[in-house]
Amino acid sequence: MKKILKTILATSALALAASTVSAGEIAVIVKTTNSNFWQNVNKGATAAIDEQSEHTMSFNGPASESAVADQVSLVENAINRGVSAIVLAPSDPEALAPAVKRAFEAGIPVAIIDSGLAEGNEQYYQTFLSTDNCAAGEQAAKLMIDNAGSSGKVAVMSYVAGVGSEIGRVGCFTKYLEENSDIEIVGPLYSQSQMATALNQTTDTLAANGDLIGIFGANEPTAIGMGRAIEQAGKAGQLTAIGFDGNTDLQDMVKSGTLLATAVQGSFQMGELGVKAVIDLLAGETVTDFIDTGVVMVTKENIDSPEAQNVLY
């Protein structure tokens, strides 16, 4: 992940605005509240708020990650009620940009988490906290080659096309396979982050490609649906399956051998460090442009280790 560059003008304008903001509400707005991953972000954000008494926090998100217009409305509502700061996981890199620009113009500092905004909007937010999704995708691809081999078919089960995290994660996964193997890529297929959709898509993909050597599920609901389809087809352990994120369903699939591994992001850290970053901004302090919240490749061998347990949820 390249370090985000901000203009001196934008930085100065925000610093001036932040210095005049009093205590108040920090709005944490995520892609959906109907996911253990985002609820773990909530836990981290709550932990950061509980460490101080000056600011309060609200946590919100639409019913699904594909409800982009609803998320835009949540950001607009937060600006309209005069929140002190916003921590935002944008569901769409283009659609959320105007709202973030409006927050900047209103003097409201914004920390972006998980997925970035479209290029050209860096001056409107002050820091970006995320897994290095490209590096994570490459790590998953390398593990795929190491375990499945360098030729054959690998299916890619993705979530929402065009989201910043998806572009890095899935894009770098497929690029690494293309540049370092003779693997034929099936897909990507997009579940819209719906577990049932991913299950059906994976069921169809397995039926149509009996010679698959591997399959990659690129986020939590997609990986769960993928894993359940593999189990229902009686193919657990017969192909290399790698998931993403780390709720109890995915942990159980790693333990049972349905998944070789799952790449787990520091979701708690996104919430905790995101809230701490905007609190620092409100206090007139500076924060770095990019904060890497990390990823751990969790396998049956290391799932009980402190490193894995610190990111699983």
UniProtKB/TrEMBL annotation:
It is found in: Cell envelope. One of its GO terms (cellular component) is cell envelope. Residues 26-285 form the Periplasmic binding protein domain. Residues 1-23 form the signal peptide. The keyword Signal applies. InterPro entries: Peripla_BP_I (IPR028082), SBP_2_dom (IPR025997). The keyword Signal applies. GO terms for molecular function: carbohydrate binding. Gene3D superfamilies: 3.40.50.2300. Keywords: Signal. Belongs to the bacterial solute-binding protein 2 family. This is LacI family transcriptional regulator. It comes from Ahrensia marina.
